[in-house]
Amino acid sequence: MERTDVRQLILGSVLVRFVMGVAVIISISACGGSRAAVLTADMPLHLEDHLDAATVVGSELPKTIPATVEWRFDQPQPDWKATPLWNPPYGAPTLSRTADALRITLTDRVRISQPPGALAGVIHVDVPDWSRADWAEVVIRARADSASSVNTMRLGFNLREGRGAATPFSFPFLFTAARSPVVRDGTVQTYRLRVNVGAPAFRGPWRQLVLAFNSDGGEPGSIDLLSVSVVPIAALYAQDQAGLRSIDVAGVYRRSLFTHAPGRLEYRVRVPDGGRLQTALGVLGAHVPVEFRISARSAKGEATSLLNETYADPDHWAERSVDLSRFAGQTITLALEVHANTAGTVAFWGSPTLSRARRTDKPNVILYIIDGGWADDMSVYGYNRRTTPNLERLAAEGAVFEHAYSNSSHTKPSTASFMTSLHNSVLGNTSSNPVDPLPPDAMTMAERFHRAGYQTAVFTSNPNAGTVSGLQRGADVLRDSTDFTNEMTSSVKLHDGYWSWRENSPEPYWVHFQPTDVHAYQPTPVVPFSGLFVTTQRRREFFDDWARFNTHRGSARGGASGGFYSGGLEAAGLDRGAFFETMRGLYDESLAHQDYQIGRLVERLQERGEWEHTLLIVAADHAIEAALFDLGALMQPTVPPRWNEPMLRGSITRVPLIVVWPGHIKGGQRFNAAVSMIDVLPTVLDLTGLPKPDVMQGQSLAPLLRGEPGWTPRPVILDYFRADSATGALRGQLEVVDGRWGASMHIGPPPVDPARRRPWPLLLYDVWADPWALHPINEQRPDLVKKYTTFLDDTWKDHQALAKQFKPGPKVALTSEQLERLRSLGYIR
Question: For residue 451, with 0-12 CB atoms within 10 Å meaning exposed, 13-18 middle and 19 or more buried, which class applies?
């Protein structure tokens, strides 16, 4: 028996039981045998969900835990100083105090040469020769309004001495660390800059904490600093001996058990036939070695070592799979144990899962979301370019919904809604603020499948479809960013991550893909599809035009010429039609690449023998215009008014929806009824035989897919809301598509921009005759205006009543990497 706290021996052995990080005391026998229930694995068994059945031995907290160091700027902080840039005649930013903050203003005296015309202001504070390895992150609370030009902040270590010769950037600090875009909407934002990011050559004492603020726009601007905190690594895990966290290692999140070395977790488990234990090893800090051990002890007390490995890489998970088949049918004590030279060192067991050879009729589920996928440009929907031959083949094997709508116009509200089957106006303000997650009571698709015993994983290159929205909940593994050389090939790396995960993950599994291949445009060609619809020469010309357009679009945004693209193109002297045709050709090339990658994914599933028991849903979170702004305006001979931007326009919300399950769903089916992405969750749960939510706003499409009678179409609801920064009141659009008719109603205070104010509170369209929704028919059909005004008024009241069941969760603080990714996708200005 291993010695633990003396008090445990006196009390007859005390065991700490943890449920989601909350400690509960239960008793165990002094000889080390646990009375905990025996766990079985008829479906994959997620050990991290059963801490209440685990015996915790050791895992004592460190004796001393460093405190978080904090500076609050609602009071004077004279130790913080403005810092001159490295080269004369560059100066320092101007510092002033407001009621609650330190205001940092960038003026012409901090203008630098690279990039041309940019501004850079630096501040610093002395620190007492810290060791970088002891600290986790610098947490900054700051505020910048929409008029501010300050768009980036970064962390630096240690100042140079004296002044030196000219350098391109003129920064006065020696080592550059993490950086983050600045959110400029007048709200207080929390930024987390990780200490161990960047500056690989920095090994010495940490003497100065440096913050740099940049403006690429060249105009003077300011940012208000409310507080700066430096958080020690030990403090992040100082509350519990063991617990469950979603742990991020180099952008890959895993539901993980953490313990302190030396420590051991013991489970009593009955090993199934073909039993295996899959897990990932993870360590915290600057290459601190941890010894990981896995062992099994039989009922007779015989111990068998299954894994003994020292691991020290904090930048990667180490995937491991342990064969337990020799213990099939036996009840054993399975021990997960860690040791390190420094007591209290934290170690992670990523998604430890006990599985068996596949013996279930439950299918694997793959939800494949093409971020920004527009049905109109897909040959499977009749487009005249052959952009989606692989989706055509899938359609022949499954079912196609001809008129599917995303339930909102942007990734964040749309993805949150189809993952919960609840509208944005019920979930709360998940549209405008990048730090508002899902309400805790709104259970996601991942959580539902995880609770049913599925392995769950999310692979996306859009943080709005991941941690920004709280969609890591229920995911054993989540990756919501990738390291790109080309944004338009994100699916390649996401698929590679998926297949790497599949090497050690059992079936059945639920996977959510959401690549951004078609969401962004870059000069880098999409091999081998570059040149398919746009010549190499025209591609080069287009990106030269794009650079010229970018110099004009800011001043032209919202101008009389009508929009983001139209005004900028007019000011740049570019031909609107030629610009659009090239942009659409580039979109179609990226769509062909995305389709090709889906085809390769399916081929590999077929080769592995998994295709026959896989349910595949291919869809999108919104169409092309949400990524490309005023595409509708570009396609028209005249620019429509700014107020005429309904979500029910096909280029905004008409998305693909294709469902394939070999042997269970008849191939070649096509359905004409209008359906919503909010129907996906109840449909998937229905097809897999899992319980439906107690509260849902979508309806199952499974009866249609199975050819059962009695399914009735119903109006499709779309909504998108932002919160007023001053009052918190919701302002936005609530819309309906009901057969031939579509209606868009404005909710809340009128828009600030006069060009966006509507001549009527509700706009009515004939979506059959006017699929672009450019010409309201209010004057021709006052009867329908009255009908849908009443309908949407009642819908809004129903949504507000339902919203009371879903209280908002706490705001989340995004990492600098997440904010940078959102900026690259256009979500942060």
Answer: middle
- Per the CB < 8 A criterion, the answer to whether 189 and 435 are in contact is yes
How large is the angle between the packed helices 389-397 and 576-607, nearest 10 degrees? 50
Q: What is the pLDDT of residues 124-183, one digit of tens each?
A: 999 999 988 788 889 999 999 888 889 889 899 998 876 655 555 567 888 887 778 888
Mean pLDDT of 278-307: 90
As separate numbers, helices (DSSP H) first and strands (DSSP E) second, the chain gives 16, 38
Q: Give the largest CA-CA distance in the chain.
A: 87
Alpha-carbon span 338 to 282, nearest angstrom = 11
For 462, the token pair is 């859009």
How far apart are the C-alpha atoms of 155 and 176, rounded to whole Å?
6
Burial (CB count <10 Å: 0-12, 13-18, 19+), residue 10? exposed
Q: How far does CA 765 lie from the centroid of its chain?
A: 34
Query: Within its chain, how far is the Cα of 556 from the centroid?
Result: 31
Tens digits of residue pLDDT in 522-565:
777 777 888 899 998 998 888 888 777 766 654 443 333 345 55
Task: Give me the residue label for tokens 């998970």.
Answer: 317
Q: Which residues pair with 322 in a beta bridge?
A: 277
Which residues, other chains included, contact 326 with Cβ-Cβ below 8 Å and sequence gap of 6+? Answer: none
Strand pairing report for 399-405 and 303-311: unpaired
Residue 375 CA to residue 377 CA, distance in Å, equals 5
* pLDDT tens, position by position, 565-580: 556 677 778 887 788 8
Q: Which of 626, 534, 594 is nearest to 380 (CA)?
A: 594
How many residues are there in the chain?
829
Task: Note the pTM of the prediction, 2 decimals.
Answer: 0.80
